[in-house]
Design brief:
Helix content is 40%, strand content 20%. Helix 8 runs antiparallel to helix 9. The protein has an eight-stranded mixed β-sheet, sandwiched between helices. A three-stranded antiparallel β-sheet has the order 2-4-3. Strands 13-12-14 form a three-stranded parallel β-sheet, with helices on one face. The longest helix is centred in the N-terminal third of the chain and has 20 residues. It is built from 14 helices and 14 strands. Helix 13 links the parallel strand 12 and strand 13.
Length: 419
């Protein structure tokens, strides 16, 4: 039986045209983030299964590609549970590996530490447009900075990068998990019910205020609490400043510094931004990761109709490894979705060198071959990209294929110069 030539479901081969764009985007990301003081690190793609399933990754923990123990450690006959079979897994994001990395190397790193990490992650998810089971993530994180300078820098660095890639009129939606909890507490929901309430709230953009109300009631929550909860959203719609409105309504449920801190982030970014985007406070923004403790944010692209990146503050996560909490905040760009949009919009990598193809007839004498290669070397020194290849029988089709790869200059060399 012939071997399968197709990639595994949910994963894909990357052709040269897309790879060229991916390499360019990576270079822009690294250069821009470098200007903001972020330094590159790398972590293994495999993590201990205990780290990946520590109830910090939300729904992603259900999507882990798990790795069987090897050699003598794998005893199928005596295995009583999954723990006896599995000891590792492919990382489902870059945050858990980063926190483990920081906990392991904190004494060797500056404080605060500004990390840039790019790499593939794996999730056993249902593939769909712009979503694969193996995909590149691009994260920047600041560890050791407790003030909102971290959020300001992360948002500015991310939006500057998106602007340099040609994106305009996108949105950065921002909220704070402490505001979400204060609104729920004010409305009379029990703390044990917060996650259920937030899951419903997260559907607001799809089902509307009425749909949220209906679902909360179906889930058994008291009508008095639901009405009080929804009145906050109605009040914010009518208020000139929704954050100020919340500050007045929530009273003892929300610390004033949370509200003023979020306002300061928004004002600072609006004043100093270099890209063309809108920064909006969105009280319905939830984000699924349970490790978020404060500010949360997302990138929304109108042409995609979905989130194209996000992040937030996770001040309690390092403490899970070391016993001592370290303030931490991160922002992840949706790399694969950005590539998808660029491809669909016919993006061309700017500043590419002229691409020249030398087509050599088979049987070209060695002396003439050396002259051709020497000429190619000279053109390469002058900054051109020169491909030296043998001429195919179907020369017209060969040129058509090379033209698709960006070659615009063709030179042909024959063993009989008269040709």
């Amino acid at each position: 039986m012939a071997l399968s030539k197709k990639p595994v479901t949910g994963m894909k081969d990357i052709l040269p045209e897309e790879m060229q764009i991916r390499d360019y985007v990576i270079s822009v990301i690294k250069e821009t983030y470098g200007e903001f003081g972020f330094t590159s690190i790398e972590t293994p793609c495999v993590e201990n299964i205990e780290n990946l399933s520590s109830k910090q990754g939300g729904e992603n923990e259900k999507l882990i590609f798990k790795i069987l123990k090897r050699g003598e450690k794998l005893n199928l006959e005596k295995a009583e549970s999954e723990k006896d079979l599995v000891d590792g897994g492919l990382r489902y994001d870059l945050t858990v590996p980063l926190v483990r990395f920081y906990a392991n190397h904190a004494n060797e790193l500056p404080s605060p530490f500004k990390a840039l990490q790019m790499g593939n992650v794996w999730r056993a998810d249902r593939p769909q447009r712009g979503r694969y089971r193996q995909f590149m993530q691009c994260d920047i994180d600041i560890l050791g900075e407790s003030s909102n300078l971290a959020e300001i820098e992360l948002i500015l660095a991310t939006t500057t990068t998106l602007g340099r890639l040609g994106f305009r009129n996108f949105q950065i939606r921002i909220n704070d998990r402490r505001i979400l909890k204060a609104m729920a507490a004010y409305s009379g929901f029990g703390e044990e019910d917060y996650d259920s309430v937030f899951i419903t709230l997260d559907k607001m953009d799809k089902i509307g205020l009425g749909g949220v109300e209906a679902e909360l009631l179906v889930n058994g929550f008291a009508k008095e609490s639901v009405d009080k909860y929804l009145s906050l959203f109605k009040g914010m719609e009518e208020a000139e400043n929704s954050l100020a409105f919340l500050g007045g309504e929530l009273g003892g449920f929300l610390e004033e510094e949370v509200r003023t801190g979020l306002q300061e982030i928004m004002d600072s970014v609006q004043t100093t931004k270099s890209a063309d985007f809108e920064l909006i406070f969105d009280p319905t923004l939830v984000r699924g990761m349970s490790y978020y403790t404060g500010t949360i944010f997302e990138v929304s692209m109108p042409e995609l109709g979905a989130s194209c990146g996000g992040g937030g503050r996770y001040d309690k996560m390092v403490g899970r490894f070391t016993g001592n909490d370290v303030p931490a905040c991160g922002f992840s760009i949706g790399f694969e979705r950005i590539i998808l949009l660029l491809l669909e919009n016919g993006f061309q990598v700017p500043g590419q060198p002229e691409k020249v193809a030398y087509l050599l007839e088979k049987g070209l004498p060695g002396q003439e071959l050396c002259k051709v290669i020497a000429k190619a070397q000279e053109e390469r020194k002058e900054g051109r990209q020169v491909l030296v290849v043998r001429m195919n029988k179907n020369k017209k089709f060969q040129k058509e294929q090379l033209t698709k790869e960006g070659y615009t200059n063709f030179q042909e060399f024959y063993k009989n110069p008269l040709k």
